Structure to design on (405 residues):
């Protein structure tokens, strides 16, 4: 049943051509009760979302990742779809929904957990006749949030509208599948050239400016690399560690542990590469397990920090429960790695740990690079220069700077 208050909403301005195109195709795409659109920031996703809600004409729950974005939805609705900013049939409280309810994914998850049974959760939405779920910035969905949304869609919700600027293609395959299972396949897309063509976005070019670390950071990185190199050199000569590896079930009883060994073939490879580098002769049968022929000439790769990382990650984390009789020795190894700052949060990282990234991220050389860039643009554009500098955070104590520079 159509909701009269929602269907009476009326966009007060002119649609941009690319928005008109999306709306023209809407009736075809919504036939499977999903509408999934990808659009860059500044393309009017929120405005399109409200118009889509109007076209569907049913009670809707709009979900956003933050309170700020949630509030923007109500602001756009009042200022772009009403003449007096007085649309009353809204709610920010998911426990007391209205024709259009604005909330966050976190709030819905907390609400979901407040019910004694899932059936009570579903019945709530049936009772309040909420039939449309609109997911803003849908790529932000986390595992816990996905569950309560997907269950709701499967049991009650008939229509899911999803808006995003960046589908989570860089996530793991399982996460991507779950995303599309909830949101449906992408129905339409607004691309950046459309915005540039309509002069809603200026023509632009992305450039990278490389900042050379200062001497202090270079010395820090060099010292760190030298410590890692010394650790690797020492461990390759450590008879106790070599003996420990040779006693590992994968090496000592290879044939009895093939199924598990193949699951962790990268660890087994790292073990053989390490032992070979340490001067040990690797029996042919160990290599045949990895698919080498007996007549094949084996060219072992050199031991690298990546191989050492795989080796210790497995010993200190993945396989630790199975090596409980060696816990005292493993604890000794763990403390060694912690002193080097390469073991934290159950993660071994000899390639580029957080310590190095933190050192580089705080480098004053980047501030000097910003000055260089702005000075160059000032020469190019002179009085026409308009510049925005984005940073992770700005310290309050520096906001009242009065010096000319």
């Amino acid at each position: 049943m159509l909701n009269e208050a929602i269907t009476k909403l009326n966009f007060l301005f002119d649609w941009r051509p690319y928005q008109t195109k999306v709306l023209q195709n809407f009736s075809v795409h919504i036939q499977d009760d999903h509408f999934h659109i990808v659009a860059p920031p500044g393309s009017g996703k929120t405005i399109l979302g409200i118009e889509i809600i109007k076209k569907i004409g049913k009670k809707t729950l709009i979900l956003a990742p933050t309170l700020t974005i949630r509030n923007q939805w109500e602001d756009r609705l009042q200022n772009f779809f009403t003449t007096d900013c007085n649309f009353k049939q809204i709610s920010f409280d998911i426990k007391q929904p209205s024709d259009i309810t604005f909330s966050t994914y976190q709030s819905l998850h907390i609400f979901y957990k407040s019910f004694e049974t899932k059936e009570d959760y579903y019945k709530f939405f049936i009772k309040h006749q909420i039939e449309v779920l609109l997911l803003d910035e849908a790529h932000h969905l986390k595992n816990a949030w996905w569950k309560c949304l997907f269950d709701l869609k499967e049991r009650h919700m008939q229509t899911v509208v999803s808006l995003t600027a960046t589908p989570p293609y860089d996530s793991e395959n399982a996460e991507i599948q779950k995303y599309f299972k909830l949101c449906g396949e992408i129905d339409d897309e607004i691309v950046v050239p459309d915005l540039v063509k309509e002069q809603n976005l200026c023509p632009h070019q992305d450039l990278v400016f490389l900042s050379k670390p200062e001497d202090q950071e270079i010395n820090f990185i060099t010292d760190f690399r030298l410590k890692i190199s010394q650790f690797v050199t020492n461990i390759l000569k450590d008879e106790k560690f070599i003996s420990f590896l040779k006693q590992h079930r994968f090496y000592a009883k290879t044939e009895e542990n093939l199924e598990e060994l193949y699951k962790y073939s990268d660890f087994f490879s790292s073990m053989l590469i390490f032992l070979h580098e340490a001067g040990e002769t690797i029996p042919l049968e160990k290599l045949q397990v990895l698919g080498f022929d007996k007549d094949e000439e084996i060219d072992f790769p050199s031991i690298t920090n990546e191989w050492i990382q795989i080796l210790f990650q497995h010993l200190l984390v993945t396989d630790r429960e199975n090596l409980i009789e060696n816990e005292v020795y493993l604890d000794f190894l763990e403390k060694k790695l912690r002193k080097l700052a390469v073991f934290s949060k159950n993660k071994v990282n000899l390639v580029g740990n957080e310590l190095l990234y933190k050192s580089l991220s705080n480098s004053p050389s980047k501030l000097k690079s910003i000055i260089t860039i702005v000075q160059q643009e000032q020469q190019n554009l002179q009085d026409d220069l308009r510049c925005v500098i984005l940073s992770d955070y700005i310290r309050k104590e520096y906001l009242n700077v009065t010096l000319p520079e």
